[in-house]
Design a protein that fits this description.
361 residues, Rossmann fold, 13 strands, 2 domains, alpha/beta
Length: 361
């Protein structure tokens, strides 16, 4: 039984689909996932190294800042439609699972026209355009943020599942051992800093100046700059400041973190909630539909994070926030507790159970 997973462009729309597909195969070994994405998305590099067959379409977003390039979207739509017709001629899908991003629009529209049922995983607090358009034809939508429902049409069944992630291990790793592994002082509080897969120049510059001025007593910094930006900051590595290009495995960083300074992507914030790590979230202001700000505001309102807009990010503001949380242990613990309350670490299995039930019906 073929199930098409449609989405991509960024890791936030691809990795949840991979997690759901693997959980679905465990629940229903007769299911054969097939991924459909875009040539220009991250899936071009990731999918060839997975166990799943895939088809890449010449899909394009609407280029709002470069409208003269937008002719590519309808052309890609037509060629993608033809590729999907060929795919269905080989083995008609039983279901199409949309996981968001511009790469999901063609397969979802095609499935709607061909009478193939669709469902969607909607990961951000503010749903993307494809999710909003096709929700009305999705009998079920699986929400990473409950706040997303207010932006979606009435009719479908909305199920708050959280976002599929690798859940924290049980038991949790030994923190003292991880501190030694990172060569950080024993019993140190750790500010974990990362700005997404590419890093964040704005966050890196603020952390650079803050660490040079002198971080608060009892704190250390584990700072992932992003691979492309690492060369600008690697010289800042020292006893209480560890500078790395990226975090792999990231569980070794989560295992020592007391507080995190991060962007507002759905996957990173979901993982931090699962680990019960409080967050200072600096959303990327140029993110599509400003979805990172919606995520940050939602977690701030839930008491699980502190929303710090990039325009307000400064050395002084960062220092004040960390020192205030140092002085107010109750606030820090409350942030951690409320982050855990938002956690849904078994989201992939839950979504897979719902999809399996639909396939059985």
């Amino acid at each position: 039984m073929r199930v098409v997973f449609a989405g991509g462009g960024t890791g936030g729309h691809l990795y949840p689909g991979l997690a759901i597909a693997r959980a679905l195969v465990r629940a229903r070994p007769d299911v054969q996932p097939h991924f459909v994405g875009a040539h220009r998305g991250i899936e071009r590099e990731i999918l060839p190294h997975t166990e799943f067959p895939h088809t890449l379409l010449d899909a394009h977003p609407v280029y709002r800042s470069q409208p003269w390039r937008s002719w590519r979207a309808p052309v890609g739509f037509l060629t993608g439609w033809r590729r999907l017709n060929v795919l269905a001629a080989e083995d008609r899908p039983a279901l199409v699972v949309g996981t968001g991003g511009y790469a999901s629009a063609i397969p979802l529209a095609w499935a709607r026209r061909k009478g193939i049922p669709i469902v969607q995983h909607i990961g951000d607090a503010f749903p993307g355009a494809a999710a909003r358009v096709f929700a009305r034809w999705s009998p079920e939508c699986y929400l990473g943020f409950p706040e997303a429902q207010r932006h979606l049409p009435v009719g479908p069944v909305y199920i708050v599942t959280g976002n599929p992630i690798e859940p924290p291990p049980t038991p949790r790793p030994d923190r003292a051992q991880l501190l030694r592994q990172w060569r950080l002082p024993r019993d140190s509080r750790v500010l974990l800093v990362f700005g997404g897969s590419q890093g964040s120049h704005a966050i890196n510059e603020a952390v650079l100046e803050w660490t040079r001025r002198g971080i608060p007593d009892g704190w250390s910094v584990l700072w992932a700059t992003g691979t492309t930006l690492y060369g600008d900051y690697q010289g800042e590595d020292r006893a209480r400041v560890r500078v790395v290009p990226y975090l792999s495995p990231i569980a070794d960083a989560y295992g020592v973190a007391t507080l995190a300074l991060v962007r507002g992507g759905m996957m990173g914030t979901t993982e931090l909630c699962a680990w019960g790590i409080p967050m200072i979230i600096v959303p990327l202001p140029t993110a599509a539909a400003d979805h990172q700000t919606w995520n940050a505001r939602s977690l701030d309102a839930a008491g699980a994070a502190i929303h710090l807009p990039q325009k307000d990010l400064s050395v002084e503001q960062l220092d004040e926030l960390v020192r205030d949380l140092t002085a107010d242990e109750t606030h820090l613990l409350d942030l951690a507790e409320r982050a855990l309350k938002r956690a849904r670490p078994r989201a992939a299995e839950e979504i897979a159970r719902h999809i399996a039930a639909l396939l059985a019906a």
